[in-house]
Design a protein that fits this description.
The protein is an alpha/beta fold and about 500 residues long. The chain contains 15 helices and eleven strands.
């Protein structure tokens, strides 16, 4: 297939970037879609992850192309040099970090959104109605009022940052946007769990408040914040003349999946006049499961909630959301009355509140479409059942590990995260096992640190993961632990077409 690549002297009607041969483009596009569907259907025929060879990496260290190539060649490069070497989080034996696995429905929606190429920063078009619909659905799912405001962002790290900004403005007044923090002449202080995600501290830094003014409250044996130590910390700051303004609860900590006692935190926030924000990056969506929802009691009292749809809802990356109970406080924090963004009573510039009034982004993709497709096509109950299944599979892994004397489970399994160690071995040995499994392409757990020790962390997020996959994972763990490989002593590479460690579950 060829595109026009002419010199600047070419005629105006030849400057289009559309294909010359639409039927040929259609054939190539259909073939590419078919190949991606086959890729998803046959995930277990390939390694979970494999590093890109240096020869492949070298292809992405070239100068800017001045002339185009045939699209079929570009698609061939994608199939050979990109598709085999990505993260691997679509595979059922990927359990590193907390990554969603995506769905074929979401892939289709992403393609359609790209075809529309709608800018959802503002203006009067249906994309904004879709986003508002999604916000109302999540407010309903979490028990917030129907008038709750919300905005799609890249992920929970950004949503937490925006939540801090809304809380800051609510505490100091919206003049802080103009005058800055020095005009306030008071030091703001915030409170969260010692196991909270690092992006909470970063949000305080980016907001100009400083991570040194974030109090990390100790956790109990379950990994939840100790409320009995929260209130004295607030009192101590008030005694110092500081202004406590924000309490961040965790609905699923990143290390172990622990859930703070959100109801008690809501009580403290109400009594102390604090903004109560919930970091629900993945755990908030447990509200879609009737059996798990009670674990989140109190989240419905939050002033704001941040969560990801690209994790447990498996919407394609990226899709994070911030919900704010007080819609006017949300709008006043970000609205910018620029002349080029003025509104009109009718036409394309109609509408009083645009998404660009609810966050810093003016140019925004149609993220809400893939979320809308996912929930319309699959339904909230099916997504909730998948979340519940992940937790059941995690408990199966916990039981298997507790039955093996060479392993120790080192943290309670609150939701879907299992943290464990090879008993009696060094931190280096734990890391060696993880690297071995990853490099062999058979499984991809990750590492974290708990109580000063390196531990192996398996986050069961993938809707494709079954108990049978976990049994295979345990087999790989046992084999690797027996070898007691040290750093740099990984095993030989695996041929994905012939290895008995990779293939369909029997």
């Amino acid at each position: 297939m060829t595109f026009r690549h002419e010199h600047p002297a070419m005629s105006d009607d030849a400057r289009t970037l559309d294909p010359e041969d639409w039927p040929q483009f259609r054939r190539l596009a259909h073939r590419a879609l078919d190949e991606m569907i086959d890729h998803l259907r046959t995930l277990e025929d390939r390694p979970v992850w494999q590093p890109a060879p240096e020869t492949v990496r070298a292809r992405f260290d070239r100068s800017l192309p001045r002339s185009g190539r045939d699209l079929s060649d570009v698609l061939g490069d994608f199939s050979s040099h990109i598709k085999p070497y990505v993260t691997g989080n679509t595979h059922p034996l990927f359990m590193g970090w907390v990554h969603g696995a995506g769905t074929p429905v979401g892939m289709l929606a992403e393609m359609l959104a790209a075809g529309l190429n709608a800018n959802c920063g503002g203006r009067n078009h249906i994309g904004l109605d879709v986003e508002r619909q999604m916000v109302r659905w999540f407010a309903e799912a979490f028990g917030l009022p129907s008038e709750t405001s919300g905005v799609f962002v890249t992920g929970t790290s950004m949503a937490n940052f925006l939540g801090v900004l809304v809380a800051r403005d609510a505490a100091l007044g919206h003049g802080v946007r103009r005058d800055g923090l020095r005009a306030a002449r008071v030091q703001l202080t915030a409170y969260t769990s010692a196991q909270a995600h690092g992006c909470v501290a970063q949000a305080l830094e980016l907001a100009g408040i400083g991570s040194g003014n974030l109090r990390l409250v100790p956790v109990d044996q379950s990994g939840a914040m100790r409320v009995d130590q929260l209130e004295p910390a607030i009192a101590a700051d008030r005694h110092q003349g500081h202004m406590p303004f924000l309490l961040v609860g965790s609905a699923g900590t990143v290390n172990t999946g622990a859930i703070d006692c959100l109801g008690r935190l809501a009580d403290v926030a109400a009594a102390e006049g604090l903004w109560f924000h919930v970091d629900g990056a993945f755990g908030a969506l447990a509200a879609l499961s009737s059996s798990l929802r009670p674990l989140l009691a109190g989240m419905e009292r939050a002033h704001s909630i941040a969560f990801d749809l690209h994790k447990w809802a498996h919407v394609p990356y990226d899709a994070g959301v911030l919900l704010v109970r007080d819609a006017e406080a949300h709008r006043r924090t970000f609205a910018n009355p620029a002349a080029y963004l003025q509104r009109t009573p009718r036409g394309l510039a109609a509408g009083q509140v645009w998404p660009c009034d609810l966050g810093p982004d003016l140019s925004r993709g149609f993220r809400a479409l893939k979320a809308w497709f996912t929930f319309e096509a699959l339904g909230a109950d099916r997504i909730g059942a998948s979340i519940e299944h992940c937790c059941k599979v995690a408990r199966h892994l916990e039981a298997r590990l507790r039955a093996l004397p060479q392993f120790e489970v080192v943290a309670p399994v609150a939701l879907n995260i299992v943290c464990f160690r090879l008993r009696g071995e060094s931190d280096e040995a734990q890391a060696a096992i993880v690297m071995d499994l990853q490099e062999r392409g058979v499984a991809a757990p990750s590492l974290t640190t708990l109580d000063g020790r390196t531990v192996i962390r398996a986050a069961i997020v993938n809707h494709r993961t079954t108990a049978a996959h976990i049994d295979r994972f345990v087999t790989y763990l046992v084999a690797s632990s027996r070898a007691k490989r040290r750093p740099g002593a990984g095993g030989p590479p695996i041929d994905a077409t012939s290895s008995p460690w990779i293939g369909a579950i029997g």
